[in-house]
Specification:
Blueprint (H helix, E strand, L loop, with lengths): L1 H22 L4 H12 L13 E2 L2 E2 L13 H13 L12 H27 L12 H6 L5 H18 L7 H10 L1
Antiparallel strand pairs: 1-2
Helix pairs in contact: 4-6, 6-7
């Protein structure tokens, strides 16, 4: 009987691991669908610092792109070429890729890396320089970083944006919800 109980527990643990892995988004194609869902479609909000925006792609950073008529496939290409690859998302631990890439979209690569570096410094005895660079020291320091810790430091980053630019407070609740959901 004890053997069967141990076997059942072992099987349940293995099943939980498989389900957990399936639920973790790790590839660009999986993650980009969620990013586009979060970013939404076309918006031209005069109070948004990015200006005219579609799928999270802003006129401010892409002045030569027809933002209003930007297609989903064009947005995906921009995200892969200008965000995913330069941010070295494939080198980040798989369980951190979704939150890291989402932060790259929100804060830019350097801002996202600084969030990871601050979170790593809060956890690890060996400190790394908070410089926004995703090099070997940072990649090593984030190997055992918990997603929940990253979420906490992401919320802190959003809060610091609102403190520095009070006019951005109108976006705070949406940012907060996204930060704890991803």
């Amino acid at each position: 009987m004890q053997y069967l109980v141990k076997l059942l527990i072992s099987g349940l643990k293995a099943l939980r691991k498989r389900i957990s892995k399936k639920m973790t988004l790790t590839t660009f194609n999986e993650i980009i669908e969620k990013i586009l869902e979060h970013e939404g479609g076309y918006v031209d909000d005069p109070l948004d610092a990015g200006g005219e925006t579609n799928f999270g792609i802003t006129k401010k950073f892409y002045p030569n792109v027809d933002i209003k008529n930007l297609t989903k496939d064009q947005a995906k290409k921009i995200y892969h070429q200008d965000y995913w690859r330069p941010a070295k998302c494939d080198e980040v631990p798989p369980y951190l890729r979704y939150i890291y890439f989402d932060m790259c979209v929100n804060f830019g690569r350097s801002g996202a890396v600084k969030v990871l570096q601050r979170a790593a410094n809060a956890k690890n005895k060996e400190k790394i320089k908070v410089d926004g660079g995703i090099g070997p020291a940072t990649l090593n320091a984030i190997q055992n970083l918990e997603v929940e810790r990253v979420k906490a430091y992401r919320v802190l980053k959003f809060a610091s944006i609102v403190i520095k630019k009070p006019e951005q407070e109108r976006f705070w609740f949406g940012w907060f919800r996204r930060a704890i959901k991803v």
